[in-house]
Design a protein that fits this description.
The protein is an alpha+beta fold. The protein has 7 helices and 7 strands. A 5-stranded mixed beta sheet has the order 2-4-5-7-6. Strands 1-3 form a two-stranded antiparallel sheet. The radius of gyration is 33 Å and the shape is elongated. The relative contact order is 0.08.
Length: about 325
């Protein structure tokens, strides 16, 4: 009887040992598998960093924790790729900006220098030349001020006091400022501004500057359509100011560039018109400083619409 019990105990112990052996073997295999996976991940990351590639972790694991780690790493690699792309765009923009700054400043300074030399050679002062020198000098000052303003906005040094703004009244005020110019150019004007007060969260000077820039652009570039519309609409959350012209418009391939620093609408609309490519960049930045947006839609010879969106206040 004792021998039988001991035999059963031995068999049981052997079974337990066998099971433990299998468990230990499985765990060792899983650990090695995890270790190999981690080694593969580490080598892939080293390769991506060393060779500056855009590859992802194309590796799948049935281990939930490893799978989550791979997902997190791929998200980081995606973000890294976006940062690189943004840096490249910024670098190209900076190079273009430096080139354009040189052009925009050099041109009026060359004119100033030329007229100055002519005055020095002249026995009597030519008031026409003096006036042109004054105008070109003012152009350089205005351009420098715009660069300074845009720099302050983009660096965060410009603080806007956000208050309650009667947008209906402000739109009418800005439109009236352009009345004589529009009349002289024989441009049809349609105002669609509600008589009721539409109140938004924003800065009056900044909004006025944005609208002034948009209307000026419509006059300068959309004059062929002989039409400008200024409308103010709302939904449950936002107010929308639309400045519309029916001129030559902006081709689709240029729409994403018009708000870039020193990108001029002249490139896509009329090479004979002036412009320094700073007004719309400043306008967009000012809109964003007020938690708003400035967007563009255009179909050539049908409509070009700039839309300023601001947070609507209903209380």
């Amino acid at each position: 009887m004792v021998i039988f019990m001991n035999t059963n105990l031995v068999i049981l112990l052997l079974i337990v040992i066998g099971i433990l052996t299998l468990i230990i073997t499985y765990l060792l295999l899983q650990r090695n598998k995890v270790q190999n996976t981690l080694d593969h991940i580490s080598k892939t990351i080293d390769h991506v960093v060393l060779h500056d590639t855009d590859e992802k972790m194309m590796f799948f694991s049935d281990n939930e924790h490893i799978s989550n780690l791979l997902t997190a790493i791929n998200l980081i690699l995606d973000e890294r790729q976006k940062v690189k792309a943004d840096y490249r765009r910024s670098e190209l923009s900076s190079k273009r900006m430096l080139s354009n700054i040189s052009h925009y400043i050099k041109t009026p300074l060359t004119v100033i220098l030329g007229y100055s030399d002519m005055l020095l050679l002249s026995e009597t002062p030519d008031m026409g030349m003096i006036e042109k020198i004054k105008q070109k000098t003012q152009d350089v000052i205005n351009l420098t001020n715009k660069f300074f303003t845009l720099s302050k906005i983009e660096s965060g040094d410009m603080k806007l006091d956000i208050t309650r703004i009667n947008l209906s009244e402000l739109c009418r005020k800005v439109a009236i400022d352009f009345y004589q110019i529009l009349l002289q150019k024989d441009i049809e004007v349609n105002l669609h501004i509600p008589e009721t007060n539409i109140v938004v969260s924003g800065n009056e000077d900044a909004i006025s500057r944005i609208l002034t820039n948009l209307i000026s652009n419509s006059i300068r570039y959309g004059f062929e359509g002989k039409y400008i519309e200024i409308s103010l609409d709302t939904d449950s959350e936002y107010a929308y100011v639309n400045v519309i012209d029916k001129g030559k418009g902006i081709e689709k391939q240029y729409i994403n560039n018009v708000f870039d620093r020193l990108y001029t609408l002249d490139d896509s609309r009329n090479p004979n018109l002036g412009g320094n490519g700073l007004g719309l960049a400043i306008a967009k930045n000012l809109a964003e400083k007020q938690n708003g947006t400035l967007t563009l839609k255009s179909i050539p010879y049908e409509f070009t619409t700039f839309t300023l969106k601001l947070k609507l206040l209903t209380y």
